[in-house]
Design brief:
homodimer, 480 residues, alpha/beta, Aspartate Aminotransferase, domain 1, Aspartate Aminotransferase, domain 2, 13% strand, globular
Chain lengths: 480, 480
């Protein structure tokens, strides 16, 4: 029988906090009848966000095309939806049940290219688009392709989305963490990037790629065009590719802020040297179609032979699921003015985005009013990365612990906090150590996806819990 | 800009013949208006196989649950289908748009466990089932989990399905090929297995797992229970895990043959030591739902800590697509006698399987009647692995080529043959070198999925082409 020590040590080391032990405990509590508020993961439809009708109507018709031949369908579905389903089947007669080209259905890739052109005013080429099972698979294919040996490193933000650290661990590459600047709205800092790079070089690590998440996960920050231009110049100077994770591009709430893509900044700077990989997904934005696992990867400034290797990599898993490809198509080509379904689309889209904006504000104001808690009100994405204070740990003053021991205790402390929060209130969040945080600070990531009433309740529970927990900690500390 | 030599050398080496250069050429020919018969890949619905109604009806309703509230739905869908969709939503209210548990939706895993118990008369546990995006992802997760270092090896059949060789190359493990015995209906031979193992050990390779594909791809062979029992004993003796790729389990056509699972043989032998990984998929069988990317992995004889590592590995990609999970649920729990949809289900299922059986026979008889061509009439799966003779190559007699050069020429020769076949007839098949073949033999793999008329036409074109091609080769050889 296979034993644990016969498994790949890289798998054993990989950690994915968003679905880690605290979430498993939450599932156990739920099974014994406790109410859990899942704020651990950006999974909108699990928290009652409704799917957009046009997406589901088209996919429903494509799954059972007999409906298209049924006279009653015309009464039940908007005319443009029926036409859209027919037109998809004309372009792609195999429907949802056949493997597609490994790179993705050609007309979907064409629609993605047109979407990028429309969004950014830049040229885009369908042959540089690969359709993927969600953005995660796109990120993993880039990491797999660029790692030649264990000392090759990816620069990843701290705090980061743990997909990156987990995949690097699993595939055997090096992580070069760079801190985001919490004091400057979590933007990237050239000084910090350079220091991280130098530290990595001193350890014999060869950086190959810089990962940027914009809007930020878990920070909720939106990067300015100037900050992006700085990053591009940094990558050019140090011969790095850029992986731009832009899955939250529709989720920008802060007044005056606007999503600007790396592709647009590249175009504006006439950047033709740095290789750019951009990711997008149907899971976030106003669609929130996480279960459909759809998304795309766009490659810029890559030679044809490199592109061919990326396409070949897709062939090994055959192709992305077809409903996900079609959801991606629908995301990049929503109903247009004049279409029968247009008004519904606009109403549903705006409802989702308005609700997220309001909930971000409620959460931000509410948490900032709790003594010992602070967050930057999220400008975008679906998350808040909340900083909280804890009383000095019993062992800290005059401690003889070394750095590693201190770190272990700190990690246990934010995890212990989140676990107690779950046990006492049913609120499930992810400890900051799962994303990375400045030494000596404590954070947790929460989404602001639950319904508005629950967010308000959540803020109240959090306040009561935090006071209780810190008082208890002080008492224990004095007792010890 | 990233250059080709900055890419992972393992990616550059990986080859996946089923979607290789010949298929790319076929796509080019199709784009300039030539008719191509795609026999390269088991993609039934691209070759006009109709999806089963019950699968699509349920998924269609789940994609747009508003239909469930519509009185007209009762007129249009069988009563049990509407009930089924409602019951799924009751068990899984998040529907198709939310991430699920990483391991897969619990009630679907429960249904899979019950399916295995019913099929084999053995106990099965939902917590030992992982739902995957097609069987390919299941296979890749096993390979990733069991490779500790480059000298760890997987025993894979020759000929094999190139997913295994490509993934081993990509993840950096060793391939230990073992020939299937063409003279004995492509069964496994203990002698050949032992020789392969010894050869690998002599090269310093440490075998960790034995891959068996049953029914066979590309061979179309169905293993007997005795042959499987031999394999289990071999694995026990040599401390190997078994990966049983059983995605063609519903595709058994030969009179008197029956699919027997590894799980059943394990149970009958009271095998409690060898670790077994079994794969199944919605892509094959009578569903043919390749585009939905659904399937499962069952683990037997694994300790809990090993199971936990497999589950953790799933978390890194969040979860399999939900429609694929639901298609898997529908595959393992089809309509039952008494259900309104039962008769349609039986008729559609039997039509698909009967048609495949007839086409396998037409192809088998037709090809065996071509001088210089031979195949075992497929007992199962969707493929025939056809052996064909070529005249001695110009360089062969009195050649001074070494083994490697000979091999290169041979590989070129079967590829050249398949390319000429494509160019002259539009028939797209995969050269035997993509799967592996005994040195000095030539094969190609073809599916028997095209409609019956096309299969008959295909046999005729193949006969004319083969005579033309071999005559030409003889003439060239004499001229040289």
């Amino acid at each position: 029988m296979i034993t644990i020590d016969q498994l790949n040590p890289r798998l054993r080391s990989a950690e994915y906090a968003v679905r880690g032990p605290i979430v498993q405990r939450a599932q156990e509590l739920e099974e014994i009848g406790r109410k859990v508020i899942y704020c651990n993961i950006g999974n909108p439809q699990a928290l009652k966000q409704r799917p957009l009708s046009y997406v589901r109507q088209v996919i429903s018709l494509l799954e059972y095309p007999d409906l298209l031949g049924d006279p009653a369908t015309a009464d039940r579905f908007p005319a443009d939806i029926v036409e859209r389903a027919k037109s998809i089947l004309k372009h792609h007669p195999h429907g949802t049940g056949a493997y597609t080209q490994s790179q993705g259905i050609p007309f979907v890739r064409q629609a993605v290219a047109e979407f990028i052109s429309r969004r950014d005013g830049v040229p885009a080429d369908k042959d540089h688009i690969i359709l993927t099972d969600g953005a995660s698979k796109g990120a993993q294919s880039i990491i797999m392709a660029l790692l030649r040996e264990p000392r090759d490193g990816f620069m990843i933000p701290i705090p980061q989305y743990p997909l990156y650290s987990a995949t690097l661990t699993l595939y055997g590459g090096a992580q070069i963490g760079y801190f985001l600047d919490e004091k400057h709205r979590w933007q990237l800092s050239e000084r910090i990037l350079t220091e991280s790079l130098n530290r990595a070089a001193a350890q014999g690590i060869r950086p190959v790629c810089l990962v940027v998440i914009n809007p930020g996960n878990p920070t909720g920050a939106v990067l300015t065009p100037e900050n992006i231009a700085m990053v591009v110049a940094f990558a050019r100077k140090h011969h790095l590719a850029i992986l731009a994770d832009e899955v939250y591009q529709e989720n920008v709430y802060a007044r005056g802020m606007k999503f600007v893509s790396f592709a647009k900044v590249f175009h504006d700077l006439h950047e033709s040297q740095v290789t750019l990989f951009s990711l997008h997904s149907v899971s976030k934005g106003y669609l929130g179609e996480c279960g459909h696992r759809g998304g795309y990867l766009e490659l810029r400034n890559v030679p044809d032979d490199v592109l061919a290797q990326f396409v070949k990599q897709q062939t090994i898993s055959l192709c992305a699921n077809v409903d996900g490809q079609l959801a991606t198509y629908l995301m990049v080509s929503p109903p247009r003015p004049g279409d029968e379904s247009y008004e519904t689309f606009v109403r549903e889209r705006d409802d989702v985005l308005r609700s997220l904006k309001i909930k971000a504000e409620i959460l931000g104001r509410g948490i900032n009013a709790i003594p010992g808690m602070h967050l930057e009100v999220p400008e975008g994405a679906m998350y808040a990365f909340v900083r909280f204070d804890l009383p000095p740990s019993p062992a800290s003053p005059g401690s003889v612990m070394n750095d590693d021991e201190q770190r272990a205790v700190r990690m246990e402390r934010d995890e212990a906090y989140c676990l107690a929060l779950l046990e006492e209130t049913g609120i499930c969040v992810v400890p900051g150590s799962g994303f990375g945080q400045e030494p000596g600070t404590f954070h947790f990531r929460t989404t602001f996806l639950p319904p508005r009433e629950e967010i308000e309740e959540l803020v109240g529970s959090l306040r009561a819990f935090h006071l209780r927990y810190t008082n208890r900690a002080v008492a224990e500390s004095m007792g010890s």
